[in-house]
Design a protein that fits this description.
Structural class: alpha/beta
Radius of gyration: 22 Å
Strand content: 15-25%
Shape: globular
CATH architecture of the largest domain: 3-Layer(aba) Sandwich
Largest sheet: 6 strands, parallel
Number of domains: 3
CATH topology of the largest domain: Rossmann fold
């Protein structure tokens, strides 16, 4: 894993008692972004890491700071994003004590003061809580990540895989772990040379561009390439945890191979714990049955106003786009192809409401391009305070608020579960706060895709923070 490009900077932080020393050091360096909340600092680090495919860091005080940050740490743990959570000494018994015991799919963030232990977890795409006393500790962790050797596959297990795929129609399943392993080129070359088509999980989108003739697109609950699996004999899952949503449409008679540092969440025929680059090098000796199935057309479209608006936004925006949890999620996933991992950042497992703005400011702090954050009403209000950070740091973040005056998914669930709707209305009338107090211009548009497209193209070129409200009707959209 690469960490030397950004050296896990800038550091996202809220100042607190036992981290005043490193906080001051990073501020002197010009490598600190002060957020309003600790949890959004962690989400900002996740966004920065995902968009640049390098680990990122957050600095929070022990006790209440670390406790507040757990919301953001949970998101990084669920989506397997390497975030270093620096803090003071973690006291488990005394005043303001806290034992961070959050888990996700069997993974519990480690608490350590050892840079090498921290590096091990980061290389395995896990967040880690790191007790620090100074800014120099961060450079030590960066060096440890860079020096971590790639673990090769067990020879016996590798032999089992080669036997399984011999003479078989084989498919590569690209998972999120492929983002961090840097396997794009070798994977596309292997696919071409061996006649092994590729499909993706949601987390693996963009590792190989979806316009590539060898990448057939996403599978699973929101996928459109599941038909390919009906003709396959073996699926080799690379850096994918094989959640129930990903494997939903894989036939029972297809053999499954799992490769990566994470344990699979479904039964497999062979599981190999190793570095993906080392596995793919060994897979060059494979002798599958080459095949070239017909590639599906692409993501299906939804017949809703919200989909039309989000599709226009994605088509207009050239730089990174970050999407929130809610009704905009499925629409953004299906609103077009993805060519790079940073092109579309979406929470996929924990799905915290209010993800998009802090993640977008994290992206904008590293990537010298304007960033689009797509969100609904509730998500906008949930992270409203972080527009203060955007204004103070002069970050080129544009928020697209698809406004329908409700928590749409909550309303849909209420109708399905209890047959009545209560307490879902949302009022986003905060233009005065944004324009008068923060100096962030607000643009209000009708639900017209062409107008949304033109407006966002203009705003991206201006490279200034803006908030765009688009009023859409209340409508049902695909549930998570």
């Amino acid at each position: 894993m690469k960490a030397s490009g950004y050296r896990m900077r800038p550091v996202f932080s809220v100042p607190g008692g036992d981290v005043i020393g490193p906080y001051t050091d990073f501020h002197r360096e010009g490598n600190l972004v002060r957020t309003v909340r600790d949890d959004t600092a962690a989400l900002a680090a996740q966004g920065a890491a995902e968009a640049t495919v390098e680990p990122a860091s957050v600095l929070v005080t022990g006790g209440p700071g670390l406790g507040a940050a757990l919301h953001g740490i949970a998101s990084a743990a669920a989506d397997r994003v390497p975030v270093l959570v620096m803090t003071g000494s973690v006291d488990e018994t005394g005043f303001q004590a806290l034992k961070p015991s959050i888990t996700s799919d069997g993974v519990k963030p480690r608490v350590t003061e050892d840079p090498e232990e921290a590096a091990v977890d980061l290389v395995r795409c896990r967040p880690v809580v790191f007790e620090t006393s100074g800014s120099d500790d961060l450079d030590t962790v960066v060096e440890a990540v860079e020096e971590s050797p790639g673990e090769g596959p067990d020879p016996k297990s590798m032999s089992d895989v080669l036997d399984l795929v011999e003479g078989s129609r084989t498919v590569f399943l690209i998972g999120g772990g492929c983002r961090w392993a840097g396997v794009s080129e070798i994977l596309e070359e292997l696919s071409k040379n061996l006649g092994v088509p590729m499909v993706e999980s949601l987390r693996g989108r963009g590792v190989v561009p979806e316009h590539s003739p060898f990448n057939h697109g996403m599978i699973g609950v929101r996928g459109w390439a599941d038909g390919l699996l009906e003709e396959a004999d073996v699926v080799v899952a690379l850096g994918a945890r094989l959640t129930e949503r990903t494997v939903a449409n894989i036939p029972d008679d297809v053999s499954l191979v799992h490769v990566g540092y994470e344990r699979p969440l479904t039964d497999v025929d062979v599981s190999i714990t190793c570095d993906l680059v080392e596995f793919l090098k060994a897979f060059e000796d494979a002798d599958p049955d080459p095949w070239e199935p017909e590639k599906p057309e692409g993501p299906p479209e939804l017949d809703t106003v919200t989909f039309d608006i989000v599709k226009a936004a994605r088509k207009a925006w050239i730089g990174p786009t970050v999407v929130d949890s809610g009704q905009v999620t499925a629409t953004a996933i299906l609103a077009g192809e993805v060519s790079t991992p940073w092109e579309l950042v979406v929470p996929s497992r924990y799905c915290p409401v209010g993800f998009s703005l802090p993640a977008a400011l994290g992206v904008a702090s590293r990537v010298p391009e304007p960033v689009l954050a797509i969100m609904g009403d509730h998500a906008f209000l949930y992270s409203l305070s972080e527009w203060v950070t955007v204004a103070e740091e002069e970050l080129p973040v544009v928020g697209l608020v698809v406004r329908n005056g409700e928590m749409g998914f909550v309303r849909q669930f209420q109708e399905a579960e209890v047959g009545e709707v209560r307490g879902v209305d949302v009022d986003c009338d905060v233009e005065g706060f944004l324009e008068r107090d923060l100096g962030i211009e607000v643009v209000e548009l009708e639900a017209d895709g062409d107008e949304v497209y033109r407006t966002l193209r203009e705003l991206e070129m201006k490279k200034e923070p803006k908030v765009v409200f688009v009023d859409v009707p209340r409508e049902d959209l695909p549930l998570p």
